[in-house]
Amino acid sequence: MSKRALIEHRPWLLASVIAACAYYFLNDNPIGELWLFLIKGSAVGLLAVYGYQRTSGPDGGILVFALALSAAGDTVLGLSFAGGGALFLLSHIAAVVLYLRNRRASPSASQSLLGLALLVGVPAVSYLVSRDPLIAIYSIGLGAMAAAAWTSRFPRYRVGLGAVLFVVSDWLIFSESGAIDLGDLPDLLIWPLYYAGQLMIATGVVQTLRGEHPAR
Question: With contact defined as beta carbons under 8 Å apart, do 170 and 138 qualify?
Fold first, then answer.
């Protein structure tokens, strides 16, 4: 799609990408925490608007709800780690509902095994990285989200891979509270991996649903 077509037909998606880039490059600039919170929350919040504009039906509504919860979590996380984590957990639960409603009819053995590995492995690695039982509990929802995304009928190398990028981003966050020192990697990679994951999930789900239900 050309840049002009993106502007004309996907304005909310374009605005989301601009907000995500702005947050990444302005994060260390003294523009004020309130503005940073708003810019950060608007990145995925605008993906929710994009999903609302481009889909309809129950599945589209669940996608929008999950993205809106994530956007709220992005905003609250800077004020309260526990509060932001609770919102993200609710977002994962909503996403699991969406993916289970859209399970792949006949997943291959390798797809099923990788889904099981994500379900079990994500909370296990999260605990090893953080040494925090509460993070491990949260990561049960994170792993369920990634496993359900990978085994859903949505494009695996967009939605499934996007969910995996989300997981890796969270692991980098967890490493900051544990004994593993990754240097500057978390600061450099957490936001790009997280946003890329959310962008891939949103566009992959919208692409599938839009082919089945008319847009608003």
Answer: no
